[in-house]
Design a protein that fits this description.
By secondary structure, the protein is of the alpha/beta class. The chain has helices spanning 12-21, 33-43, 51-55, 68-78, 96-107, 121-127, 138-143, 145-151, 163-191, 196-203, 211-222, 231-246, 253-267, 279-287, and strands at 3-6, 25-29, 46-47, 60-63, 87-90, 112-115, 118-119, 130-135, 152-159. It has two domains: 3-159, NAD(P)-binding Rossmann-like Domain (Rossmann fold), CATH 3.40.50; 166-287, N-(1-d-carboxylethyl)-l-norvaline Dehydrogenase, domain 2 (Orthogonal Bundle), CATH 1.10.1040.10. The strands form two sheets. Strands 3-2-1-4-5-6 form a six-stranded parallel sheet, sandwiched between helices. A three-stranded mixed sheet has the order 7-8-9. It is globular and about 65 Å long.
Length: 291
Amino acid sequence: MKVGFAGLGAMGAPMATNLHRAGLLQAVWNRTAARSQALAAQLEVRAAASLADLAHDADAVVLCVAADADVLAVVDELAPALHPGALVIDCSTVSAATAHAAAATLATRQVDFLDAPVSGGIEGAERGTLAIMVGGSEQAFERAQPILQAMGKTISHFGATGSGQATKATNQIMCAGIIRAVAEAMAFAKAHELPLDKVVATLGQGAGSSWYFVNRAPNMIRNHYPAGFRVRLHAKDLAICRAMAAQHGVELPVVEAMLQEYGELIARGHGDEDISTAYRLKAELFERQPD
């Protein structure tokens, strides 16, 4: 298969690199051309001049962009240039409604679509060990296996179009709770003057551990939050979760609380830091002096 990749951010670039290692990557595109040109030179593949250029001789195109509007705009530009029978795999995190709209646009060109959001952080993208949650036809899912297996380790088909995004929304709700709990726990441990490295090493093997705790609590110890998964992006994802829950007449307390905290962090200028910067707010709870 000849595969093009659109969207070379923190997740997309290593995912494209793993497709190259599997011998599948033909060309790359990014809104900022310098980024696609640099990766293309590194991998010795073609830097597409446009999305139409990326699509015109591709058997499949993988997307990894930031937001719903980006997915729809990219699909609109790809669709006329894709040949019938091609496949588009969207690894962005967007709403199920956006997945349905993208699939409908591509169906008019006889192009299959899979919504295939991912989880596992930059580490998983680099190692090719992402969890990939897929919605779309069983036939398209089977065709996509060489591509998906090059990028991920746990690959699951959840049903029709949109079900991959609904599963990712479920994941993002879980992450919101874990992020808040770890930040509170680490602030509590610091206030009790515990050796924080030892706390992470020990509790990382305990019942309360998680991938997030082991990999992101060290950021809190150093008070340094290099962008892994940015606050702005998780806030965007949780807004999607809020809207999907509202369709059922439900408000989710964990989502609402995390959105409020993210709003405070963004207002303070921390929106482009890693989500572990939520620790800032929890540490402040212990720093306040009683009246």
